[in-house]
Design goal:
TIM Barrel, 306 residues, 16% strand, 11 helices, two-stranded parallel ribbon, 2 domains, single chain, alpha/beta
């Protein structure tokens, strides 16, 4: 090196190494890492850390909650008894978004050693309904504030709509309008792989890359999508997943889910170094608590860390 040449900085050395890996065919994850490094250098706020623990969706307890057999405040004791360390709350189960009510709820769960792993925004956002988008932005801002008070690291969105050729751009614009509030609250945004922009996993992964993979990720649901593409969706979305719904409906005599190969899905998540919550979403016809217990045992059989 001549005395006129600048020495290679550690930052440039790492960046060139990442680019070499991308050029060699290791895209996706490495592109995301490079972008995250650039964002951190600009001093942007860090999102709340993800929680690698076993969780349960309040939706799995919906029959008991609506029948008055269980209160949301009582879920902490039940989950502790079931040896489940987290809960993901649907906003339809939150009686109030007032900070004092949320703080009381949070402390109740924490007393039973149950962390709140996410807030699920239950009403889909119709990206084709221009008249409702401003209202939905305000509602989502309220959910971000609620998540911050509850110390939940993320919220889940369902971005619906028609005309796939327009949906990507509409979704990207909508997310860009929400991102400043998400960053301010240090709460991540996740999009579920269901109809709308999440119908095709490739489209959802492209949307995440096009916005900000540090703050926007997938809420990967085991049971959504065409049956013949169930495991393709897992492979495509696992590197971008911040939260996972362990969907279950029925079990065979061995305790395996009848429509989803849990061992196969969990292997894909492990290979992608997934560090978020695995959140049980039992929607079968049997007793919800028994279904949650069977799903818990199934996850632990295939992934001992949880």
């Amino acid at each position: 090196m001549s005395r006129h040449e600048k020495p290679t900085s550690r930052r440039d050395f790492l960046r060139e190494g990442l680019r070499s890996l991308v050029n060699a065919g290791f895209g996706g994850v490495f592109e995301k890492l490079e972008r995250v490094g650039e964002l951190m250098e600009r001093g942007e706020p860090k999102p709340a850390p993800l929680m690698p623990l076993l969780s349960c969706e309040s939706r799995a307890l919906h029959p008991l909650l609506t029948a008055g057999q269980l209160s949301l405040e009582g879920c902490g004791a039940l989950l502790n008894e079931l040896d489940i360390q987290g809960v993901s709350l649907s906003d339809r189960h939150l009686a109030s978004l007032h900070p004092r009510a949320l703080e009381h709820l949070r402390e109740g769960f924490h007393r039973h050693s149950v962390a709140i792993t996410g807030i699920m925004v239950s009403e889909p956002v119709n990206l084709n309904d221009e008249a409702s988008l401003s209202r939905r932005l305000d509602e989502i801002a309220d959910r971000l504030q609620a998540a911050a008070v509850l110390q939940a690291p993320l919220i889940r969105l369902h971005l619906s709509g028609e005309r796939e050729d327009e949906l990507f751009e509409r979704a990207a614009q909508f997310l860009q309008r929400i991102l400043p509030e998400a960053r301010r609250r240090r709460v991540r945004l996740t999009i579920e792989n269901r109809d709308g922009v999440g119908r095709r996993p490739e489209l959802l992964a492209s949307l995440i890359r096009a916005t900000d993979p540090r703050w926007v990720g997938a809420c990967y649901d085991f049971g959504h999508g065409a049956p013949e593409r169930l495991y393709d969706a897992a492979r495509i979305l696992a590197p971008y997943a911040f939260h996972a719904h362990a969907k279950s409906r029925a079990f065979d005599p061995r305790g395996e889910e009848t429509s989803i190969e849990y061992g196969r899905v969990l292997s894909i998540l492990r290979f992608a170094s997934y560090v978020g919550a695995l959140s049980i979403e039992y929607l079968g016809e049997d007793d919800p608590i028994e279904g949650i217990r069977k799903t818990r045992d199934l996850i632990r059989r295939h992934w001992r860390a949880y």
